[in-house]
Amino acid sequence: MAIDVATVRKVAKLAHIRVPDDQLAPLAQELSGILQWIEQLQEVDTTGVEPMTSAVALPMAMREDVVTEGGDATAILANAPRARDGFFVTPKVVE
Amino acid sequence: MTKLTSLTLTGALAGLRAREFSSRELTSAHIEAIEASRGLNAFVLETPELALSMATASDERLARGQAGPLEGAPLGIKDLFCTKGVRSTAGSRILGEFTPTYESTVTANLWRDGAVMTGKLNMDEFAMGSSNETSAFGPVINPWRSRGTNQPLSPGGSSGGSAAAVAAELVLGATATDTGGSIRQPASLTGSVGVKPTYGRCSRWGVVAFASSLDQAGPLAKTVDDAALLLKSMSGHDPKDSTSLPVDVPDFPAFVGRSVKGLRIGIPREYRVDNMPGEIEALWSQGVAWLKDAGCEVVDVSLPHTRYALPAYYIIAPAEASSNLARYDGIRYGARVEAPSLNDLYELTRAAGFGEEVKRRVLIGTYVLSAGYYDAYYLKALKVRRRIADDFDQAFAGVDALLTPTAPSAAFGLGDNAADPVAMYLNDIFTVTVNLAGLPAISVPGGLDAQGLPLGLQIISRALDEATMFSLAGALEKAAAFRARPERWW
Lengths: 95, 490
Fold this sequence. Notes:
The complex is a heterodimer.
Chain A: H1 5-14, H2 21-38, H3 73-77, E1 83-84, E2 87-88
Antiparallel strand pairs in A: 1-2
Helix pairs in contact in A: 1-2
Chain B: H1 9-17, H2 23-35, E1 43-46, H3 48-63, E2 74-78, H4 105-112, E3 116-121, H5 160-167, E4 173-178, H6 184-190, E5 193-196, E6 216-221, H7 224-234, E7 264-268, H8 278-293, E8 297-301, H9 309-324, H10 342-353, H11 356-369, H12 374-396, E9 401-405, H13 421-425, H14 432-437, E10 441-448, E11 454-461, H15 466-480
Parallel strand pairs in B: 2-3, 7-8, 7-9
Antiparallel strand pairs in B: 1-3, 4-6, 5-6, 5-10, 9-11, 10-11
């Protein structure tokens, strides 16, 4: 299935990646090439096949619902590009 | 005395325990080799001071008779592993100068056992690549060259730095990760041994996530013995990774050298692909002969859905990556492009921080998960994944292990496959099935091609049966007697 420029623009928006207009068409072509190659999956009969969501069948690990770590804002913020007074700094999000 | 850097890990550990040399001497020799090999671009960060202080501590423990299993051995760490206080980039610009405040479980296990860190190894960005060319730090150069040429070759990927560092004798072993072949393909292209264990053997905690249902850590090493020793330290249940298996870690090195007499080996006929170089076909037949000589019974088996593994992988892995890489937002860590609005900040940060291949995969992943396409692509791929796993189950009802080539070619030139993403993806044709099914596999060097480049053979075993895998790998290693080393040009 071919991907057109409008679809690339939409997907890039969903993925939060800015793609300049002049790169949309080449990207559409590249992605279409990959998807065309992927299309051969449709040949496989998967009627009644359960989707495989995990590499090993393992019951979900459970643990006591207690605090095991945390309370270390300094470590959490240590790599923040901008931090102030124990908070991450973002552009204004509420008008 | 033998050059300290030419020792195997197992040999070096014996020398350290016998007090033939100290860890400081051994580590210094490797630091010198690393500094003299910057042309390979295998390291993205060297940590000589840390290495020497760890070596000093190791020497003290050796003197007190409290040596751990890897005491004093200098290793390299793929830059996908978070190392406390040491910059970890995953080969990406978007992580900037990210310096973890915690240690990955796998590396913590290695330090617990006495290993010494020499630095962080180059890799494809977020482990997405088969040639190391997607690294933000530029490609690693393979220490091997085709006879009579000086064309720079790729060491494979994504663990290209790990493989090149081991092959060039810069470290005694290295950590690596394998999502579709990223340990085994570079092992094959550099004449090294590489193991992808059963999914869940090694904790993923603190390993930068690419495709969580496929990612698995493992060692790159000079010999099968060394790989077994490293894997034993790296493995173990970790409550911090919910997919980590609550099982005991076998004494892997004990299985190397064990008789393989009477084992049944399957040769999957679907791995005989079009355009496979004759030399790889010949090496595969040679591998069959070696295992027969060792007393194995060799039979043909069928894995009918093999050809659909790569297309399924290129839905599942990008889908998981698009979700995992959503965390790189320019707010919490890593690089940031300032902008007046939050959305602009996200979009510009991610546009500047991710390389072309990573963007391609995030976009593919976002597309196949988006409304209207989820069933047709993602769900379909998960069902095909089940078919591929079922193929292995059926094959393993009649055989103990499978023998295949590791990669469809020897080392290729940098730039040779860069223009066509799908051509690059085909590098993983023999390795990716194993990730989808969660099985263990090892690549062992089998010989050299006519150009003098190494080629690997792969053993695949049942889930959690690394013991059989290591015994067979040991038998192949012994029969192949692969001793070739790259001639130093760098």
